[in-house]
Design goal:
The protein is α/β, with parallel strands linked by helices. It contains 7 helices and 7 strands; from the N terminus they run βαββαβαβαβαααβ. The protein has 2 domains: 203 residues, 3-Layer(aba) Sandwich (Rossmann fold); 38 residues. Strands 3-2-1-4-5-6-7 form a 7-stranded parallel sheet, sandwiched between helices. α4 links the parallel β5 and β6. Keywords: Oxidoreductase.
Length: 257
């Protein structure tokens, strides 16, 4: 494999499992020095990656992570704001209280804003940087009964990303969004299992129903490595003229072009 990211320093938030782990694996395979930030360190070997324990709901987390990374590596080239989750109960507006809305916005929007703000001075000084904010297809096509607050927070992330790309593109820093659809992750597995338990049905039936509800022409969920491959392209020099874009990777489920 070509070491196209050799010498680059990359941060992946939520980089210990699911999509984040696959992104971290891919960037490291391409030669980058990879730092992962998450609440808890996993039991398995991180292949000598620099791990930072951080609760991204903490308003000081961005500054703390940036300080540690810049002190150790002296620079940052790539940020992948992957940390995020649908934390709220299903059922639509009546099931959502202020705490649900606050938690969704903090994790899915504000965590990325804080990380980027803390690192951007170093990126702008070097006129070299790429930021990828991981969003979701349901920010464009929300499932009101399942993802109302989550979709709203990610839609705000999309708008923020475009505004930031417009502001700092001339300063040597690119910003893009990757929006996965349904992905085969541990979080998705838990989500499906919870629905199956509540509805007294099988996980396979729930997964099939969700795929049909979302309407995925490829008739399957994405694998995490497929999302990682797209991110790896966007942070590379092969994508150096791509800025302010939002790439859907959803198997064709969004019914518009």
């Amino acid at each position: 494999m070509n070491k196209t990211l050799l010498g680059k320093v990359a941060l992946v938030t939520g980089g210990t499992k699911g999509i984040g782990k696959s992104i971290a694996d891919k960037l490291q395979a391409l030669g980058a020095n990879v730092i992962v930030a998450a609440r808890t360190k996993p039991q398995e070997n991180l292949d000598d990656r620099h791990f930072i324990a951080a609760d991204l709901l903490d308003s000081e987390s961005g500054e703390n992570i940036a300080k540690e990374v810049i002190e150790k590596y002296g620079k940052i080239n790539i940020i992948v704001n992957n940390a995020g989750a649908n934390l709220s109960p299903s059922g639509g507006y009546s099931t959502l209280n202020d705490e649900h809305w606050k938690n969704e916005l903090e994790l899915n929007l504000m965590s990325a804003i804080r990380i980027n703000k803390a690192f951007l001075p170093a990126m702008i000084d070097s006129r070299n940087g790429v930021i990828i904010n991981i969003s979701t297809g349901v920010a464009k096509q929300p499932l009101w009964d399942l993802t109302m607050a989550y979709s709203t927070a990610k839609a705000a992330l999309n708008m923020y990303s475009k505004a930031l790309a417009n502001e700092i593109g001339s300063k040597g820093v690119r910003v893009n969004v990757v929006s996965p659809g349904m992905v085969n992750t541990p979080l998705m597995a838990d989500f499906i299992e919870n629905i199956a338990t509540s509805n007294k049905t099988t996980k396979e039936q729930v997964a099939e129903n969700l795929i049909n509800q979302v309407g995925i022409p490829l008739n399957r969920m994405a694998e995490t490595e497929e999302v990682a491959n797209l991110v790896a392209f966007l942070v590379s020099d092969d994508a150096k003229y791509i800025n302010g874009a939002n790439y859907l990777i959803d198997g064709g489920s969004l019914p518009t072009v």
